[in-house]
Amino acid sequence: QVQLQESGPGLVKPSQTLSLTCTVSGGSITTNYYYWSWIRQPPGKGLEWIGYMAYSGRTYYSPSLKSRTSISRDTSNNQFSLQLSSVTPEDTAVYYCARAEGGAEEHDYWGQGTQVTVSS
């Protein structure tokens, strides 16, 4: 059973960088052909995909967030991380990490989500 767990600060000040880590257990983040995503849900809105780190280490970001997004990984600890720079209150959301198998339309495993609020 794959499990994902998000961690990081719940409060970030405007203009700072939001940093979150997803710790994965029950499966390796380097196993073919899985993709490890960050997804968020602002209050009262739908899910927004932010980007992914592939099993190979390749990354791909949402065009709308690409200029502010970086996803990295620590294979020794089976973790992948999100950094979102220059945050504003509009980046307030519940942030999720999730896994998808290559070719699948849906993510099959999700973390429980972590609330991040951008406020001074």
Account of the protein in words:
- The structure is a single chain.
- By secondary structure, the chain is mainly β.
- The chain has no helices and eleven strands.
- The strands form two sheets. Strands 2, 4, 5, 6, 9, 10 and 11 form a seven-stranded mixed β-sheet that branches.
- Strand 9 and strand 10 form a beta hairpin.
- The radius of gyration is 13 Å and the shape is globular.
- It starts with a strand and ends with a strand.
Layout: helices, strands, pairs:
Elements: E1 3-7, E2 11-12, E3 18-25, E4 34-41, E5 48-54, E6 59-61, E7 69-74, E8 79-84, E9 93-101, E10 109-110, E11 114-118
Parallel strand pairs: 2-11
Antiparallel strand pairs: 1-3, 3-8, 4-5, 4-9, 5-6, 7-8, 9-10, 9-11
Give a concise summary.
This protein is mainly beta and 120 residues long. It contains no helices and 11 strands.
Number of helices: 0
Task: Specify the oligomeric state.
Answer: single chain
Count of beta strands: 11
Rounded mean pLDDT is 96
Secondary-structure element order, N to C: EEEEEEEEEEE
Which strand-content bin applies to the residues?
A: over 45%
Based on helices, strands and strand pairing, what is the structural class?
Answer: mainly beta
**How many angstroms separate the termini?**
39 Å
Cα shape: globular
Round the Cα radius of gyration to an integer and report it.
13 Å
Helix content: under 10%
Name the poorly predicted regions. none
Main pleated-sheet profile: 7 strands, mixed
